[in-house]
Amino acid sequence: MKLRRRETVSLQLVTALGAAALLFPFLWMISASLQTLQEVEAFPPIWIPEVPQWTNYVEAVVNYNIGRALLNSAIVTTVSVVGQLIVCSLGAYAFSRLRFPGRDAIFLLFLATMMIPHYVTIIPLYTMVWSAGLIDTYTALIFPGLFSPFGTFLLRQFFNQIPISLDEATLIDGGNHWHIYLYVIMPLSRAGLGALGIFSFLGIWNTLFWPVLVINSKELFTLPLALAMAQGQFITLIHIQMAGSVIACVPVIVVFLMLQKQFISSIALSGMKQ
Amino acid sequence: MATGQKAQTVSAPWSVLRPKGRRHKDLYVALLFLAPSLLGLFLLQVLPIGTALVLGVSEWNIIDPIKFVGLSNFVEVATDATFYHTLENTLYLTVGLEVLNTLLGLCAALLLKNAMRGIDLYRTIYFLPLITTWAAVAIAWRYMYSLEGPINALLGPLGIDPIPWLSRPEWAMPAVIITITWKTLSWKTIILLAGLQSIPNEFYEASSIDGASRWQQFWKITLPLLSPAMFFALIIGIINTLQLFDPIFIMTDGGPADSTRTLSYYIYTRGFQNLRMGYAAALSWVLFAIILLFTLIQWVLQKRWVFYQ
């Protein structure tokens, strides 16, 4: 479709207006994080701080537990994402490449559990963690992220697209299934592993519900939990809280900017959210 | 269907490579590869779902011994006025969000489809809210909604008096819906954009030769061919909305006066604030039933409006 010049200009204008509206909360967040307490409480609101207060960030990290929370989030997310990729790819390999009795029935069970809402399983999971004495531990934060039926399903779909002749070549060369998995399937599935990695990174980094349930002590707060709790505790220190919010958003934005194309095509492919 | 066929073609050569009767040879290898997944499936899905069934017919506050109470939790749900109120709220939120998200998401997709200057930057900006941490941005929105906050300050020059966004029952839900739209809009946009890009250009070229206007093209080509993507986005969108937690936890905690307490947030309230695990489990099964019902209804209704090529 060819557009006339006037149309192009108006299209561009509308798109830019939309972008400005969507950016506004971020801009306000950044501006507020650089204001003094007086500025942030002023009415009418001050849009641009007179002198940017970079010390707000130092204060958020040092005095308000954001530094520790950042570390916790990094640990929990890294271990969970790597673990999930390993567990799901091993399972997906079995479903894609191995023959064993009950394979399709078990795979159907994986799919069926994807229909059950999170809320049904989270109450029993909490009671399990509670009875096992795992409240307030890294284990409680990490183990639910180590496995995902969706991840297994997604990777199996990717593995199925890899030609079986490559496996046969490995077998003829004297390799076994472990070799096929490690040297054929995994290197050829970077796109699939990347997609699952992005989803689980975003999901686990951003998650609030589960940490709210299983973590009580400050030392184990993840970033979202630390922000939510700071809201109640330092209710008046809006500028410090906004500094914390900016700190929490930066890592996901960096990852997004690096992997944007892949991220968008993965959503379009699988419809995953959050 | 397609995946089933693929699975067959994938596994077929193995039976050729291997004599019959050695079909089970893979069993031990499969057990090794599957062991972590099966453990995960058991601990994170099968066992919790089984436990949720037991909890649904029990009374348990975690501290005292669990007590079997039959169907009384479900009877209580049926007569619980707050439950019906949360259902209304859930309906309000879901409908409001789907309408806004679909309209705006469609507009955004139509805009971002064009090859204009700076399109990559625009796309990045449009998709930014989706990936950021709910907790972080919900706190920002909470302050933006304050009586003397930036949103009212922007509305002031338009002649709108300061709105008590999160402090009045009649304004809290619209405020929450606006925030969630801002955050989830681009998910809808991505799905619809992919749908738009899969419509062959020839359709537009052929119809403009026949003298069709832009408007006619939109109604006769774009919308019908986009309907499968819209259907998919509608189903997944509703399922996700029905399970929202973070924005309500941060912005309103279900208030004021229960005006933003959705069914899923009510499950959290009963289970983890009032420690009524059995009742919360029963409510979670009701949520499951609602999701199933919604999806089935959509599935039946899709014949009327979804157009498959």
UniProtKB/TrEMBL annotation, chain A:
GO terms for cellular component: plasma membrane. This is Carbohydrate ABC transporter permease. Belongs to the binding-protein-dependent transport system permease family. It comes from Caldilineaceae bacterium SB0661_bin_32. The keyword Membrane applies. It is a multi-pass membrane protein. Keywords: Cell membrane, Membrane, Transmembrane, Transmembrane helix, Transport. Gene3D superfamilies: MetI-like. InterPro entries: MetI-like, MetI-like_sf. It is found in: Cell membrane. PANTHER family: ABC TRANSPORTER PERMEASE PROTEIN MG189-RELATED (PTHR43744:SF12), ABC TRANSPORTER PERMEASE PROTEIN MG189-RELATED-RELATED (PTHR43744). The chain crosses the membrane at residues 66-93, 105-126, 138-155, 193-214, 234-259. One of its GO terms (biological process) is transmembrane transport. It comes from the Bacteria. Residues 70-259 form the ABC transmembrane type-1 domain.
From TrEMBL, chain B:
It is found in: Cell membrane. Signal peptide: none annotated. InterPro entries: ABC_transporter_permease (IPR051393), MetI-like (IPR000515), MetI-like_sf (IPR035906). GO terms for cellular component: plasma membrane. Pfam families: BPD_transp_1 (PF00528). GO terms for biological process: transmembrane transport. It is a multi-pass membrane protein. The chain crosses the membrane at residues 27-47, 91-112, 124-144, 171-196, 217-239, 279-301. It comes from the Bacteria. The keyword Transmembrane applies. Residues 87-298 form the ABC transmembrane type-1 domain. Keywords: Cell membrane, Membrane, Transmembrane, Transmembrane helix, Transport. SUPFAM superfamilies: MetI-like. Belongs to the binding-protein-dependent transport system permease family. PANTHER family: ABC TRANSPORTER PERMEASE PROTEIN, DIACETYLCHITOBIOSE UPTAKE SYSTEM PERMEASE PROTEIN NGCF. This is Sugar ABC transporter permease. It comes from Caldilineaceae bacterium SB0661_bin_32.
